[in-house]
Design a protein that fits this description.
By secondary structure, the chain is mainly alpha-helical. It has a domain at 38-219 and 280-295: Phosphoglycerate mutase-like (Rossmann fold, 3-Layer(aba) Sandwich), CATH 3.40.50.1240. The protein is built from 12 helices and 4 strands, in the order ααααααααααββββαα. Strands 1, 2, 3 and 4 form a 4-stranded antiparallel β-sheet that branches. Helix 7 crosses helix 9. The two termini are 36 Å apart. One of its GO terms (molecular function) is acid phosphatase activity. InterPro entries: His_Pase_clade-2, His_PPase_superfam. This is Phosphoglycerate mutase-like protein. Keywords: Hydrolase.
Length: 316
């Protein structure tokens, strides 16, 4: 995370970049409120039956799409019983080794169809663990939304009732307002938490993801939303043809329709009046109960016996 921030600073400001911006390094550890690592203060995010629902779906799907690969590869490993999970790990090796050194021989082990199956397995994993299908996604993303509204309105956070850090956010030195540019570096799972908390339900329009086949059309593609190096831009714009300041959201260079946000119009450039956006987010914050989501004594069954498309747990 620190390297990402430093690399951005070098690219944006040029070298030397010291003195041209303010860098705030936050602690990612148990007991420290951090909107960029909200799982550290959300106990329910540590309970697998609540926060890791995706593994059930991935196991079921991997057993289908990797069956032939297992039968093909197993005879090549003498004295070792190659499991479906092992084969799935080999696919992961291809992805991570390619990013690390530029190429991986593991990639050659699989067919095009098997790579399509792997791509969908990640949709399943992140949908049910970090996005609209997770009962703890919205509560983990709502703290960042609170900070964003503070920045948009140049107003300090009034009540710290989520993962926001009062020590940092109440200080103008560590959480300055009135700036023209803010850059935050975090993990892809937190990005998905935030997109869920923003109520960008156009990504959830096709509903829960099945574990026995790849849907012909799906509104949720994690390769588009959270690839390596994922980025989200919140742009403030003013146009002579529009009366008030506008906001739009760009996810990995793609404009996101904001029609799922209460009051935002259907607009070809994805624009929404800032005042409308702020009011809708305040309503979202009001309707998101951190205590219930992160500390509540609720349960959800494994697998497809229960679903959410809002990233929220069962209501009290």
């Amino acid at each position: 995370m620190l390297a990402s921030a430093l690399n951005f600073a070098i690219g944006f400001f040029g070298y030397p970049f010291e003195g041209q911006y303010q860098q705030s390094i936050t602690i990612e550890a148990k007991g420290y409120n951090n909107t960029l690592a909200p799982y550290k203060t959300c106990p329910n995010a540590d309970i697998k039956s609540k926060a890791d629902r995706g593994s059930w779906y991935v196991r079921k799907w991997a057993g289908i799409y990797l069956k032939d690969a297992q039968a093909r590869l197993a005879p090549q490993l003498k004295g070792y019983d190659l499991s479906i999970e092992d084969v799935y790990t080999l696919q992961q090796m291809c992805a991570y080794e390619t990013v690390a050194i530029g190429y991986s021989k593991f990639c050659e082990l699989f067919t095009q169809k098997e790579w399509e199956g792997f791509d969908y397995s990640l949709d399943l994993y992140f949908w049910y663990d970090s996005a609209f299908g997770s009962p703890v996604a919205r509560v983990q993303g709502i703290g960042y939304v609170q900070e964003m509204i503070a920045r948009l309105t140049h107003t300090p956070i009034a009540v710290h009732n989520s993962s926001t850090n009062a020590t940092l956010d109440d200080s103008s030195a560590t959480f300055p307002l009135g700036q023209s540019l803010y850059v935050d570096a975090t993990h892809e799972v937190v990005v998905l938490n935030i997109l869920t908390a923003l109520n960008l339900t156009n990504f959830a329009a096709s509903g829960p993801l099945p574990a026995d086949h790849i849907p012909s059309k799906s509104s949720f593609k994690v390769s588009n939303l959270a690839p390596f190096g994922t980025n989200v831009h919140f742009q403030l714009l003013e146009c002579s043809s529009i009366d008030e300041p506008q906001i739009r959201i760009i996810v990995n260079d793609g404009v996101v329709p904001l029609t799922s946000i209460n009051g935002c119009p259907k607009q070809k450039d994805g624009l929404c009046p800032v005042s409308t956006f702020v009011e809708a987010m305040r309503e979202m914050i009001q309707n998101t109960d951190w205590v219930w989501g992160c500390h509540g004594d609720w349960e959800v069954p494994e697998g497809d016996a229960w679903h959410t498309t809002t990233g929220y747990p069962p209501l009290q």
